[in-house]
User: Fold this.
Amino acid sequence: MKHKLLQHADIAPLLSTELHSRYDVHPLWKEGDPAAFLARHGGDFTGYVTSARFGVPEATLAALPNLKVISSFGVGTETLPLASAAARGIAVGYTPDVLNNCVADTAFGLVMDVARRFSAADRFVRRGDWLKGPYPLTTSISGKRLGILGLGRIGQVVAKRASGFDMEVRYHNRRANPAVSYIYEATLESLAQWADFLVVVSAGGPETRNLVSASVMRALGPTGFLINVSRGTVVDENALIEALEGGVIAGAGLDVYADEPRVPARLLALEQVVLLPHLASATHETRQAMADLVLENLDAYYATGHACAAVPGAV
Ligand code: 8YV
Assistant:
């Protein structure tokens, strides 16, 4: 008999076929009244499939008395009910590492785009403005200073990309990482003060909320650029908009926002901002690898009692 799983949302078409062939999967998102469904059938399910975007609401977890494993599509864990799951001995798997390259590539693409203004230049050509005169000069990136907020697995790949452009790299984390040779800046302000490009790759959640504040942007200064590929919550979005509008910083490259998929109109109006629709991990290759790991975590749990890529601290 197949194990019964509840699926939170239509996460990735890549995942669907295999998931359905191996498990008895029920699509919760198709229920008109999910709470009523959970009240009647919550006890039937031992597994839950979700994504970093949707997580598992505490109320849903409470309505699943026999849940044993959560498998999440994504590396972010701030939407997962980790404490409640640990208290109940529920295993939690996620998809770290397989997306490092694509997220770092996106961060680096944004570094290039904000400085060299490729997206804005593309609009310039399409508008026919080239016929009226040359495009204004932009900022070079080779040899510049790149500060990384969150030198974790993805941050280290960003640093590697930067070395190919002869950039100097420094970082700020909660603690210095003795395993790396990059210079550690003890405060985010001092990192921003030093950097030409401040790249945010830290985790989301309450501990990092609004870490990139108005004063960090003042430290980054009028020739500095902010790049964010982690979570919109890490940057004080209103302070960022004010900093951009007032020329406090030179520009920003964003893949993530405070209230996705809604992007504030004031950001849309700014030419010095590159706006991406949270696409950092969204390549065929990486999304396939993430889907595979979601399945591997489930298979490993049902075979051994442990997810193969378990969230640190989870069962
Ligand atoms: C995905 C992400 O967009 O891994 C993450 O935490 O934010 C992205 O890779 C997300 O998992 C899809 O919900």
User: Anything to note?
Assistant: The two ends are 25 Å apart (CA to CA). The chain has a mean pLDDT of 97. Residues 51-53, 73-76, 99, 278, 281 surround 2-keto-D-gluconic acid (CB under 6 Å). The domain at 4-98+285-304 is CATH 3.40.50.720 (Rossmann fold).
